[in-house]
Amino acid sequence: QQSARQRLRKDAELELKNTKYNMSKLQESWLKIMRTAKTKQLKKQVEIISQNHERDVDRRDAILQMLDRDLDEAEEQHQVAVRSHLLNVDRLLEIQQSRLLA
After folding, report:
1. Buried b (16+ CB within 10 A) or exposed e, 44-73
2. DSSP 102
């Protein structure tokens, strides 16, 4: 009877040891599966974020090009206005000069 108890105790200890080992192996396998799934999910998210970033960069680049054209047009208009103003000032000076001489 004593030996049967010891054998049962050893069998129970062995079973517990095997259960722990199998549980750790099962957990390790499960973690690999979960890691793989998470990696796929993260790669997909990175791809989406990358595409959104490219779209934003393209949009901002287009805006910058548009603003650059607007700035060129504004500078041209400014130069036209300055030339016109200087011509008007010259005419006024000529008129004033002719009045002083008359």
Report:
1. eeeeeeeeeeeeeeeeeeeeeeeeeeeeee
2. -
The per-residue DSSP string of 49-60 comes to HHHHHHHHHHHH
The alpha-carbon radius of gyration of the chain (Å, integer) is 43
Tell me the C-alpha distance between 4 and 45, whole Å: 60
- 26-58 pLDDT, tens digit each: 999 999 999 999 999 999 999 999 999 999 999
| Whole-number Å distance between alpha carbons of 90 and 84 | 10
Amino acid at the residue 50 = S
| pTM to 2 decimal places | 0.59
CA contacts within 13 A on the Cβ side of 42: 6
Tokens in use for 74?
């504004």
DSSP 61-79: HHHHHHHHHHHHHHHHHHH
